[in-house]
From TrEMBL:
Protein name: DNA-binding response regulator
Residue ranges of coiled coil: none
Organism: Winogradskya consettensis
A Gene Ontology biological process term: phosphorelay signal transduction system
Residues annotated as domain HTH luxR-type: 153-218
Response regulatory domain boundaries: 12-128
SUPFAM superfamilies in the cross-refs: CheY-like
PANTHER family attached to this UniProt entry: TRANSCRIPTIONAL REGULATORY PROTEIN NARL-RELATED, TWO-COMPONENT RESPONSE REGULATOR
Keywords, ordered alphabetically: DNA-binding, Phosphoprotein, Transcription, Transcription regulation
Lineage: Bacteria, Bacillati, Actinomycetota, Actinomycetes, Micromonosporales
Molecular-function annotations in GO: DNA binding
Residues with PTM 4-aspartylphosphate: D62
Amino acid sequence: MTAALGQSSVPRVVVADDQALVRAGFRMILTADGIEVVAEATNGAEAVDAVRRHRPDVVLMDIRMPGTDGLAATRQIMAGRDATPRIIILTTFDLDHYVYAALTAGASGFLLKDVTPEHLVGAVRLVRDGDALLAPSITRRLVERFARGESEPPPDLAGLTKRELEVLALLAQGLSNAELAARLYLSEATVKTHVARILGKLGLRDRVQAVVAAYRTGLVTP
């Protein structure tokens, strides 16, 4: 799993969106909850530069921006040699086809722009910690379509233990570590260990890829 860049307990965020009101609104919501917005960007090129200069934990990345769009910026950021931030894709439409390409490029999650303040704050904190997929109302449709479009063979689950298969199946439902722990009567630390082992054994980058793998292997079905 990609390590978060920030060393403090306060998430550090870059907000990339071409609409000033959206950036201002997100900044106000995040700072009110103690999250530090280290920079704003009006297009993808500015977002890439902001990541290089400020090394944030999370980037809120709009897909549709003039010039370098969010998809191209995500690819550039994730191709960096140093530790990279978690990227949350912002989209207006819940079936925006660019979201699938963004997941392929390395984005860790996605949110609709009409997200509530509570969900926005929770999403930033969860993704910073590598915890959960976002926007549960559209996660299944996005992941299912994304999984069907994969051309590479699905990973082999034979190396996973019975417990790890159980964790992966529940993770594919969008459960957070806390929810997994409650469902399986385990500590969150134990759940995090299981998730890390699953990612390591399957050679996956993050939970997004793990969910896609669960669908592609047939461990879970639509």
